[in-house]
Specification:
With 501 residues, the chain is of the alpha/beta class. It is 41% helix and 20% strand.
């Protein structure tokens, strides 16, 4: 048997999933390694917990599968993009900031005002934003200069996994491009780009670059001993997790599109040239780029509401909070005058000061109406991103939906209705881990390229068709949703300027 291990390190946890060479899942395991908030706007994680959980996670998935480590022909990694992970020369973590962090919002506003953001955009095909890796590097240089002085390496989240398994310090073009650290379309580090961020003195921290399917290193003696993998097993450079999730959903070719309903709202399409007026772009493979519109406005809202608003609902204990949220939303009728929800618990993609909230509540509404509004507000944020992609000239056909939210009976159909077009729903719920395993299958030589590997390892998506009547209702409500957002924008700014001092 040939097996391939995909490891997906997200903002809230790490998953390891083992697949055979046809993409069939053999076993999976998960560890919750979520972050903490040491101050308002700050979201950090414990790197040592991530590392300590990794060995047990891999050993567990091998034990559950019954597959010996000798059958694993390659390992692929995926991880959340952006944030900031700084290591010293010994590998000790000096900073571990997640991609929900907004501490650097004021710095972005300064760059927007003085033209630095325009200079970055011309080179990186994205504007600086608060959780972006170079933005956080610049913030650290201003506010934690001793930490930056002690740092030896800047890595992305999935690169920490590669480092733990192989001892190698390396990254890939998808993660570094998605972080705004590469000049596009050349997929290279650039002196002028670093200067635009004010980071000319820190180029030595940036890791060597590989394509996602290139071998980054091999399982070390220590990693083999603690995981059950065989020493020398190849580990590929891996992928920005949103790109991995697209690949795991079968999206590998120019003109194909992927929407990921996860912690972040991810909306992306593969193009021959990176688009200029979108949130971000990155390389996927030679001659292929992913152009994206993203924000932290997706299923994290459901997690918060399920825990905080449904936490005392006795029905939660019988069904689970998320299943209860689905049930309530499905039971509530789609009303033209139903409440409106803006999913900005962690700010909006273009406005870090934005806040979440319900509007338009009437005495005749109930918890089900609130849950439907929440699902709808998250879906509207996805829809707004999709509109911006198309307005920027990004052309694509049917969208394939993946991520944890794709398992909901609410969101995929809601998006089909909003778009007025059919959508596909990925067959493999852990599409990020599958995308990482596909990269490993290519890097280890089993398949020639990502297209061939995806054709062999990704099962066909389920197709959902839109309801024309619902499409008309959502179009009218989306217009109201946008208008309320515009009206609230100055009030969000005023609220952001307040403090308890």
């Amino acid at each position: 048997m040939n097996a391939y291990l995909g490891i997906d390190a997200g903002n809230t946890g790490v998953k390891a999933v083992l697949f055979d060479e046809e993409g069939r899942e053999l076993a999976r395991a998960h560890r919750d390694t979520g972050g903490t908030s040491p101050a308002p706007g700050m979201v950090e994680r414990d790197v040592e917990l991530l590392r300590s959980d990794l060995s047990g996670l891999i050993a567990e998935v091998l034990a559950r599968s019954g597959v010996p480590g000798s059958a694993v022909r390659g390992v692929g990694t995926a991880g959340h993009g952006n944030g900031l992970y700084l290591l010293d020369a010994s590998g000790k973590a000096l900073a571990a900031i997640q991609s929900l962090d907004t501490r650097a919002a004021d710095l972005v506003a300064k760059w927007d005002a003085d033209g630095a953001s325009d200079a970055v955009n011309r080179l990186a095909r994205q504007r600086p934003w608060a959780s972006q890796t170079p933005t956080l590097m610049a913030w650290m240089a201003r506010h934690r200069p001793a930490v930056m002085q002690a740092a030896a390496h800047v890595l992305m989240c999935k690169d920490l996994v590669t480092h733990a398994l192989t001892g190698e310090v390396v990254s890939d073009v998808s993660d570094m491009g998605g972080a705004g650290l590469l000049a596009l379309p050349d997929n290279r580090y650039d002196d002028d780009l670093l200067a635009a961020y004010g980071l000319s003195d820190y180029q030595h921290l940036l890791p060597p670059l590989l394509w996602p399917t290139e071998i980054a290193g091999r399982i070390t003696t220590d990693a083999a001993r603690t995981t059950g993998l065989i020493e020398g097993t190849p580990v590929v450079a891996g992928l920005f997790d949103v790109v991995a999730s697209a690949i795991g959903a079968g999206v590998t070719q120019i003109g194909q599109a992927s929407t990921i309903i996860g912690t972040w709202s991810i909306n992306q399409a593969i193009v021959a040239e990176p688009a200029a007026a979108v949130f971000m772009s990155c390389g996927v493979a030679p001659g292929r780029y992913m152009s994206m519109e993203n924000s932290a406005t997706s299923a994290a809202n459901l997690e918060w509401v399920a825990h905080n608003l449904l936490g005392h609902d006795e029905r939660r204990h019988a069904r689970g909070a998320f299943a209860l949220a689905d049930e309530l939303a499905l039971a509530a009728p789609l009303r033209l005058d139903g409440p409106i929800y803006h999913p900005y618990l962690y700010g909006a993609g273009t406005n870090p000061a934005a806040r979440a909230g319900f509007m338009g509540l009437g005495g005749w509404h109930d918890t089900g109406d609130l849950m439907r509004a929440l699902f709808e507000g998250v879906a509207f944020a996805h829809l707004a991103h999709i509109h911006r992609l198309r307005a920027a000239g990004v052309e694509f056909g049917r969208i394939t939906i993946s991520g944890g939210g794709a398992k909901s009976p609410v969101w995929p159909q809601m998006l089909a209705d909003m778009l007025g077009a059919s959508v596909g729903v990925a067959a493999q719920p852990e599409s990020g881990a599958l995308g990482a395993a596909i990269a490993a299958a290519v890097g280890s030589g089993r398949y020639a390229d990502l297209d061939a590997a995806a054709a062999a390892m990704v099962a066909p998506a389920t197709e959902l068709l839109p309801d024309p009547q619902r499409t008309k209702i959502y179009q009218r409500r989306f217009t109201v949703w946008q208008g309320i957002e515009q009206a609230l924008t100055p009030h969000w700014a005023a609220l952001a300027g307040m403090n308890d001092d």
